[in-house]
Amino acid sequence: MADMCMSGESLLHFLEPHGKTVQDRHQSTPRPAASGTMRVGLIWVRLMTKQLRIGLAGLGTVGASLVRLLQMHGAAIGARAGRPMAITAVSARDRKRDRGIDLSGLAWFDDAVALAGSADIDCFVELIGGDEGPAREAVEAALKSGKHVVTANKALLAKHGNALAALAEENGVHLAFEASAAGGIPIVKTMREALAGNRVTRLYGILNGTCNYILSRMEAEGLSFAECLADAQRLGYAEADPTFDIEGYDTAHKLALLTSLAFGTQVDADAIYVEGISAIAPLDLKMADDLGFRIKLLGVAERTRTGIEQRVHPTMVPRDSAIAQVMGVTNAVTIDADAVGELTLIGPGAGGDATASAVLADIADVAGTPPRPPFGWPVAQMELAERAPMQRHEGGYYVRLAVYDRPGAAAGIARHMAENDISLESILQRRSEAAALDPTGRSGAPVPVVLITYATSEGAVREAIRQIAEDGLIAEDAQVIRIERE
Amino acid sequence: MADMCMSGESLLHFLEPHGKTVQDRHQSTPRPAASGTMRVGLIWVRLMTKQLRIGLAGLGTVGASLVRLLQMHGAAIGARAGRPMAITAVSARDRKRDRGIDLSGLAWFDDAVALAGSADIDCFVELIGGDEGPAREAVEAALKSGKHVVTANKALLAKHGNALAALAEENGVHLAFEASAAGGIPIVKTMREALAGNRVTRLYGILNGTCNYILSRMEAEGLSFAECLADAQRLGYAEADPTFDIEGYDTAHKLALLTSLAFGTQVDADAIYVEGISAIAPLDLKMADDLGFRIKLLGVAERTRTGIEQRVHPTMVPRDSAIAQVMGVTNAVTIDADAVGELTLIGPGAGGDATASAVLADIADVAGTPPRPPFGWPVAQMELAERAPMQRHEGGYYVRLAVYDRPGAAAGIARHMAENDISLESILQRRSEAAALDPTGRSGAPVPVVLITYATSEGAVREAIRQIAEDGLIAEDAQVIRIERE
Q: Which tens digits make up the pLDDT trace of A313-332?
């Protein structure tokens, strides 16, 4: 290998000046892709013949899997990428802890930022987590010092993705994050490369295994949300504080990244409407089933007349759709695009090995290909998307009302719906237990009534429900679940 | 752009000699990836700043879609790939035919081979079809003259894939074929890049839309194979001569390519066991449903104790599996691998725009990345896999017998199964119409009996059936369908 490296170096001796000139000449002109290309190309040519030295920060489940997998498959991956690779340095909190992996011969750094800046690595893998602190500092330090970065940190990218992508582009290095969205599913590569020739119209996915596990159990066994959450926690599918997962924030972080990949817009997590699954009742799952639907927590990004709509909420999906079959902790993403039509990817959304598999794919790209714009578009071309306000969202709705079983109630509800130009596709009424004990049916005990609307606006639905409540026709807040059709 | 090109050229003025030296020094040593890398890298650096000139041969449905999509999205794809691109020359049989696309300004070639060798293109897109003749000649001419090649031609690659991959590697150019397997599904990129860090254990897929359409209709409507085939032909889903599709050869071609991508073995289509769907009866679909299965024509590639097993045949898949939900002309591929676990991709297997989407992804890779080994592994490392003979295939089996309804028949069948060490998971007997007319049940009219076996070998099942037939217990040939579990 030595002579290769030398010739690589001597080559660069001729190259650098030219590379720089080209680079400088374009510093001023707004042509990031073209100007970066030449310099990046030269660096790439030099590096392709040298071993890729990987510095890994974070030795949790994923980090340990990555070390194991690289020790197993490293040679093969290197042969396929056309460049040898190895982890040469690691960093973690506790040096003594036994992680069941062999770290002998690897340089140890107590400080991740120091590792990120070390001249002895070419690629920094960040598996620390968190949207600030050491993770952010280390990634910035790595990019600024010309290191390629591979990260699984969705929170960091959802918050600082635009700035970090710009930093990567300025320094002509990779910023790869396949493991940050949908774990082992190659959704980033698919959006950025496989669909390069497509105009995406909509993207939706099951991006959080905890929520899908809970909803699957609730549906299959008719259990309550609380019972299933407790099981999920016992099985390690949910954190002690599950808020982040069950209220949809984790899904939102991933959606923010996928939205930019799909539409070439700047990462804008604040524009996402977020609603969790804690309010879903077994009755809703039963009603959904009766109506030919299943309820999934979806992240949806859509190009609408009013702009890019980003939303995370429980969603009714047709029971025979591919995404409705996705049960348990599995993730799935469906993309609607002009050329390919509909494409669905289903796979593990979490887990040490599955996530490490995505990190390895990124490392192979770092080793074998020149840097590309992290989100698929040169940063200079990524614009802030016009936000589509949720009130303007148009679609079908599932509305469950606890209606006082009195004469005129149905008429009142129908009238308010009509007044707001909402047409109903179907109405389903179940006899409540209270009502069942009352043969006369005149107790006025609340009975669940479900309305499925044709496409209408969120605003209209909310207004109709407000009016219905105002008339005292319902006993509790209405349950509203959006419908997403294929 | 002019000055960029010039500096690109002057750069190469310094580079070529070094590139050549490096190349030559490694000519003798068996390090294809590394030696190719340097030269390829230099060529890539020079080209990244110039427009990618595409020559397209074949203006059928896919070709016309490609022209349309590139005219629509070309600029965006170029910006994302970091290099402008455009179709500059085309070739087809009939110059006059109106294809509803604008070919003005494009050079016309009556001879595809002449286009492939033209010095005015950088990338040759082959959409002619056929495993010999102009398609093969043109692709070889393009590769030999240093052109990148993008093809959707599965037949050509299934037959000459090894030689063409070697030719591409020798000439340091791309040989991309995403559109050759599963149409718009990015399965090639997923296998070659996204799963680079995985060891694949099994791959199976619905790779032929015609067959899946026919089986879906048969199941949903209880129609015969012949009726559904006629509909498929009327709807343009099946050719006038459907043999190639319904007998499984089309699936086999695609499987041969996916097997190489999965296991790094040489393309070996002759090693594939192929069985079509023409013998599937509505009764089998009904029985499958009763037993919790669906019948799909699958292409399966698996690493077994006896070698790499490649097979195409009607298969019973669990009704709740992701692949069982795939209906109509849609395709799907599931990959089992050590790190990622199970990954499933579902999408359009055919159609002009969907196929063109895959071709466009390849073109974007050609424009933005250096050539990689076409099948994911340097040709020198691709070995001929040890074939696993079908007789040694191990798995569960569905066996439907037309049993003469006589005393002792059941006992005879059970004995022969036991003698061949086959244990039965379930037995299902349906009363035939003939038997239904015979209240005594002693007419001896044949009744369908279905046996589901636990894992056993193909050889044992065939031998047991031979013995059962020999004893005159069954009225017609047994129906044998293999079971594939998740």
A: 999 999 888 899 899 999 99
Kindly determine whether residue B197 and residue A8, on different chains, have CB atoms separated by under 8 Å: no
Which CATH topology does B190-348 take?
A: Dihydrodipicolinate Reductase; domain 2 (3.30.360)
Which regions in chain B score pLDDT beneath 50? 1-35
Considering only CB atoms, A34 lies closest to which of B4, B33, B199, namely: B4
Q: Give the residue on A whose Cα is nearest the Cα of B326.
A: A322
pLDDT for A233-274, tens place per residue? 999 888 889 999 999 999 999 999 999 999 999 999 999 999
Please choose, from the candidates A386, A482, A463, the residue with its C-alpha nearest in 3D space to the C-alpha of residue A417: A463
Question: Which chain B residue has the Cα nearest residue A198?
Answer: B357
Contact (CB<8Å) B73/A356: no
Q: From chain B, pick out residues whose CB is under 8 angstroms from the CB of A196.
A: 77, 80-81, 360-361, 364
Ordered strands of the A85-91 beta sheet: A107-109, A85-91, A52-57, A123-126, A148-151, A175-176
Q: What pLDDT, in 10s, does the model give residues A157-178?
A: 999 999 999 999 999 999 999 9
Q: What dotted CATH number matches B52-180?
A: 3.40.50.720
Within 13 A of B56's CA, how many CA atoms are on the CB side? 24
Q: Is B129 left (phi over 0), alpha (psi -120 to 50) or beta?
A: left
Å from A23 to nearest chain B CA? 10
* Domain spans in chain B, listed from the N-terminal domain onward: 52-180, 190-348, 392-483
Asked if A339's CB is within 8 angstroms of B357's CB, the reply is yes
Q: Does the pLDDT of residue A7 top 80, yes or no?
A: no
The span from the first CA to the last CA of chain B, in angstroms, equals 53
Q: Smallest CA–CA separation between A474 and chain B, in Å?
A: 39
CATH class of the domain whose range is A392-483: alpha beta
Task: Please report the pLDDT score of residue A50 as a whole number.
Answer: 87
Q: Which pLDDT does position B434 carry in this prediction?
A: 56
